[in-house]
Design goal:
- By secondary structure, this protein is an alpha/beta fold.
- It folds into three domains: about 10-345, Aldolase class I (TIM Barrel), CATH 3.20.20.70; about 375-470 and about 635-674, Rossmann fold (3-Layer(aba) Sandwich); about 470-520 and about 555-625, FAD/NAD(P)-binding domain.
- It is about 30% helix and about 15% strand.
- The chain has an eight-stranded parallel barrel, surrounded by seven helices. Strands 15-14-13-16-27 form a five-stranded parallel sheet, sandwiched between helices.
- β20, α20 (about 580-590) and β21 form a beta-alpha-beta unit.
- α18 packs parallel to α20 (about 580-590).
- Bound molecules: NADP nicotinamide-adenine-dinucleotide phosphate (NAP) and iron/sulfur cluster.
- NADP nicotinamide-adenine-dinucleotide phosphate binds near residues 511 and 659.
């Protein structure tokens, strides 16, 4: 067997989990959408049919007032909707368990009716929550219990109660959010009371033959957060009250340590779960940045957990477990932890999907069905768009030739993978290389296809994914020898001096700054380096894991100015859930960010700019241009002029949208229909 630990069943007493893999909870937006439950049923059933052991749904609120428009489970009508999901999962594989997560957002609710133990606004909350009175507390407990009972009626095998992340239950546990002086505040015994009463009363109401998971913040990454003793005490008390499983979580949403972004090392936090596992007798779940089966297996092998939870991993590839079971792990479409189409969407109020798998949450809308009329297709350019098109079309039975002018596939991904902290992009390139083999795509590297070749070869259709060319801004002195393009810098073709100005502060300007301000090995590949850089103490576990721990930052070996013309704060356009990590990193390294800059000229003295009406010279020896891109469409125009049927995709279609998420999505939809 390939992964003996991962594939080992787990006996929970009244029931057995068929293996140690869990699809972890993730809100998708389907929960609230018209017809969303039908789509959610298809989404989960596809994962259930492909080997996952247990699924936990996105968070469902226990009452209307806590969610205001969000999904709730409080009555028969709602239970009937959920039945679509539970039946779909159980008919896909009767051995797969599905639990519903009960999530009361408390101070993080998007409603003026938000409630909490005390009227303490979260750093990321929208409203100051109202303090619950004694009757209010009892109502919340009752609603959690009713929610679990309704979940059972809806056909779920269990529930997960979330007691972490800054939501209601966790806000009772932590001193800074619980200022109460009654029996629910003050001492830790009192602060635990709310969580314990919910669990005790839920267990009594649902019976013993129902999975009851409690999600605990095993390291909340808060200054003044929970101490290790408090975490252990809570876990042991939960065990006494009959939880079936304890799931470990590693953050509050407001904490200032990245825990799921791509710069977080794989399985960075599983050691914390391992320590907690020694303190309890119920199975424990670990999670975060577990994106390949060998990573999961190693965590289990080290005895750090009984179960491994993977959420985004399963968004990216619904067949993740099947491929692991069948020894086809090189075919796994790996989650690269970019958050661009999942959490950035969730927190932006958009439907979740996945950058590398646009079918995620669109299983009823986007399907790659075998073609009834196979065509001879040429795809020109093996960047993200070209690759997605070629693989999707070939998978459907088309005869695909993929032309690439350079010696390797990947396009812009080959730049991204050079940036410290973005090593995961190597996985996407590995995946596409393997898919080219699996689907028999005729890959022609080092071949610049021209219009004559494409026309003479008699292709039924030519897909142009020739990408972009970097924009050359109209600045006097742009030809000066100290000017470098970002591609040359990332590829190491142009040396970079000690004093640098970076023109353009989009995603690529930030990437370039990361690269040239970085020294030493990448902390994304080393848990200890990561911990030092972000001020986390895994060994001693002070309160929250971070209290009193200073981040150890290696200053940039260069003086760097990152510039933009816009008046908005620099980096505000980066991804919602990851942009802050890039801003913090560059700030800590001493990069000077400047907004509302006018560029005057570049000469031997440096870069001349105007700010607030005042001229200034940045005495730099390198000016790196990261000013966006222009589409490369010449070939497309030629083909159209010669009446060759052609489509334009990716950056060549819309350079302003040059982003792998849009490129892969557009290509996949088009290839699904050709
Ligand atoms: P971008 O996000 O469009 O940023 C281009 C920057 O250049 C802007 O800061 C713009 O700001 C400036 N600019 C535009 N025209 C200019 C001109 N004529 N002269 C001087 N400055 C000019 O493009 P990008 O940074 O190249 O990124 C391209 C794509 O890759 C984006 O879609 C991005 O989402 C994606 N990407 C994302 C990440 C990520 O972290 N998620 C990382 C890398 C790339 P001003 O106009 O204010 O000066
Ligand atoms: Fe993973 Fe990115 Fe897909 Fe989210 S969008 S599941 S982080 S690859």
């Amino acid at each position: 067997m390939n992964y003996p630990k991962l594939l080992e069943p787990l006996d929970l007493g009244h029931t057995t989990l068929k293996n140690r893999s869990i699809m972890g909870s993730m809100h998708t937006g389907l929960e609230e959408m018209e017809g969303g439950f039908e789509r959610m049923a298809a989404y989960f059933a596809e994962r259930a049919a492909n080997g996952i052991g247990m699924i936990i749904t996105g968070g469902i609120a226990p009452n209307f007032e806590s969610s205001r428009g969000g999904a709730t489970m409080s009555n028969d009508e709602e239970a009937a909707q959920h039945r679509l999901v539970t039946e779909a999962v159980h008919s896909a594989d009767p051995d797969v368990k599905i639990c519903m997560q009960i999530l009361h957002p408390g101070p993080l609710a998007y409603t003026p009716d938000a409630v909490a133990p005390s009227a303490v606004k979260s750093r990321i909350g929208r409203y100051v929550p109202a303090e619950l009175d004694a009757a209010g507390i009892q109502k919340q407990i009752d609603d959690h219990v009713r929610c679990a009972v309704m979940a059972r009626k809806a056909g779920y095998d269990g529930v997960e109660i979330i007691g972490s992340a800054g939501y209601l239950i966790s806000s009772f546990l932590v001193e800074k959010t619980n200022l109460r002086e009654d029996e629910y505040g003050g001492s830790y015994e009192n602060r635990m009371r709310f969580a314990l009463e919910i669990v005790e009363q839920t267990r009594a109401a649902v019976g013993d033959d129902f999975i009851l998971i409690f999600r605990i913040a095993a390291m909340d990454m808060l200054q003044g957060g929970m101490s290790w003793d408090e975490i252990v005490t809570l876990a042991q008390r939960l065990e006494q009250l009959g939880v079936s499983i304890i799931s470990t979580h590693f953050t509050w949403h407001e904490s200032a340590v990245p825990t799921i972004a791509t710069m977080v090392p794989r399985a960075a936090f599983t050691g914390v779960t391992g320590r907690l596992r020694k303190e309890v007798n119920v199975p424990v779940i670990t999670s975060n940045r577990i994106n390949m089966p060998d990573v999961a297996e190693e965590v289990l092998e080290r005895g750090e957990a009984d179960l491994v939870s993977m959420a985004r991993t399963l968004l990216a590839d619904p067949e993740f477990m099947r491929k692991a079971i069948e020894g086809r792990e090189d075919e796994i479409n790996t989650c690269i932890a970019c958050n661009q189409a999942c959490l950035d969407h969730t927190f932006g109020g958009k439907l979740t999907s996945c950058l590398v798998n646009p079918r995620a949450c669109h299983e009823t809308k986007l399907n790659y069905l075998p073609t009834k009329s196979p065509k001879k297709l040429a795809v020109v350019g093996a960047g993200p768009a070209g690759l997605a098109y070629a693989v999707t079309a070939a998978q459907r039975g088309h005869d695909v030739t993929l032309f690439e002018a350079s010696g390797e596939i990947g396009g812009q991904f080959n730049l991204a993978k050079q940036i410290p902290g973005k090593e995961e992009f190597n996985e996407t390139i590995r995946y596409f290389n393997r898919m080219i083999e699996v689907h028999g795509i005729d890959l022609r590297l080092n071949m610049r296809a021209d219009a004559k070749l494409l026309k003479d070869a008699g292709f039924d259709r030519v897909i142009i994914s020739t990408g972009i060319t970097p924009r050359v801004p109209d600045i006097a002195g742009i030809d000066h020898p100290k000017v470098a393009g970002y591609i040359d810098v990332i590829q190491g073709k142009k040396s970079v001096g000690d004093r640098v100005a970076v023109v353009g502060a989009g995603g690529i300007g930030f990437d370039v700054c990361e690269l040239i301000s970085h020294s030493g090995p990448s902390s994304a590949l080393d848990r200890d380096l990561f911990a030092a850089e972000w001020g986390v103490d895994f060994e001693n576990h002070p309160r929250g894991g971070v209290t009193g721990v200073e981040p150890q930052v290696t200053p940039s070996p260069r003086e760097i100015f990152l510039l933009q013309r816009k008046e908005t704060s620099v980096g505000s356009g980066l991804g919602k859930t990851t942009g802050w990590t890039h801003r913090i990193t560059l700030n800590r390294r001493g990069i000077k960010m400047m907004k509302a800059v006018e560029y005057e000229r570049i000469d031997d003295a440096g870069l001349h700019i105007v700010r607030d009406g005042m001229p200034e010279v940045l005495e730099v020896d390198t000016v790196i241009i990261c000013a966006g891109q222009e589409p490369l469409r010449g070939l497309y125009d030629e083909l159209v002029a010669q009446d060759v049927p052609a489509d334009l995709i990716g950056g060549a279609f819309e350079a302003a949208e040059l982003d792998a998420k849009a490129a892969i999505k557009q290509a996949s939809y088009l290839a699904a229909e050709v």
